[in-house]
Amino acid sequence: MNILLIFVKNLQMNLLYQFHQYIRLEKNLSPKTVEAYISDLKKWYTFLNPNFIDPNFDVQSIDNQVIGMTLPEIQQYLEFLYKSGIQARSQARVISSLKAFFKFLWIQKCISEDPTQLLESPKIGRKLPEFLSIPEVEALINAIDLSTPEGHRNKAIIEVMYGCGLRVSETVELKLSQLFFKENFIRVIGKGDKERLVPIGETAQNAIIQYIEGKRTQQKPKKGMEDILFLNRRNTKLTREMIFILIKNLADLAGIHKNISPHTLRHSFATHLIEGGADLRAVQEMLGHESITTTEIYTHLDKEYIRSTMAMYHPRY
């Protein structure tokens, strides 16, 4: 049996499985990259305790050991890899895997300090994120069947994710009390519980209002879910995976043959703003990026878009 499936069966949601969901659904890493990261971490777990391969082994004890990990202990593993003779590129990927994992632990508040911050990241360049064109976004929305009970909810989800640039985790946690339509803003709780105000346009507002006045008023939320905006059939909040599946299915219906995820809508939001001439600092605020260097990738994407357009249409390019 696949070791990840053993984790789920025995421990419901241990750290490694949660990380798998995080990089697949929220970070939108490619399937090969997800597989590589998880493989790297399983090898590291095995290094920490060889009994890890035993399905009856208490994985939770390793999770606790990981939470208390220090930089010198991580460096011991990297030294072990170096002495094992693995290639430099593979070593660099392991560092990327570990840094991503500990950043995830920090976001989840499992650790108060990231021990991998001082590890040198490999300088292999930044990959431009996948995004949808404006017609593709419209095709995605038009693929929604509004005659189904979940139709208007699904449209509201897509409209608010694209219209406000929300992360999937921010979308599933969005509350009725965070909607300020008179002021044309919503209050978003992002990474590290940081709040930000994001403008919301009439299109997204109208989609949400139609959902609230229709299906949402007919539901009886379970205890503790009364303020959650988007509910599933069980009257509780949606999972990130449910939105991931929703968007994949809509992409298929719309004939979009790109590797997209919920995060693609966020990339599309930022890309279309930058292409339209939006101020980079304003886009940073709307996305909730701590550093503007994270937002700057969209300026590179915009330049690539211009270059590809030139290459496609200029007769002497």
General description of the model:
The protein is mainly α and 317 residues long. It folds into two domains: 3-107, DNA polymerase, domain 1 (Orthogonal Bundle); 134-311, Orthogonal Bundle (hpI Integrase, Chain A). It has helices at residues 3-11, 15-26, 31-48, 59-67, 71-84, 88-107, 134-142, 151-164, 168-172, 202-218, 240-254, 262-275, 280-287, 292-295, 297-313; strands at 179-180, 185-189, 195-199. A three-stranded antiparallel beta sheet has the order 1-2-3. Helix 2 packs antiparallel against helix 3 (31-48) and helix 12 crosses helix 15 (297-313). The termini are far apart. Residues 1-13 have low confidence and may be disordered.
Report the end-to-end length measured between terminal Cα atoms: 54 Å
CATH architecture of the largest domain: Orthogonal Bundle
The CATH class name of the largest domain reads: Mainly Alpha
Task: Record the strand order, biggest sheet.
Answer: 1-2-3
User: What fraction of residues sit in β-strands?
Assistant: under 5%
> Given the structure, what is the number of helices?
15
Instruction: List how many beta strands DSSP finds.
Output: 3
Number of domains: 2
CATH overall fold name of the largest domain: hpI Integrase, Chain A
Percent helix range: 55-70%
What integer value in Å does the Rg equal? Answer: 21 Å
Q: Spell the H/E element sequence.
A: HHHHHHHHHEEEHHHHHH
Stretches where pLDDT is under 50 for at least 5 consecutive residues are 1-13
Mean pLDDT: 84
Note the overall shape.
Answer: globular
Looking at CATH, the homologous superfamily of the largest domain is: Intergrase catalytic core
- Which class of secondary structure composition applies to the elements? mainly alpha
Query: How can the largest sheet be summarized?
Result: 3 strands, antiparallel
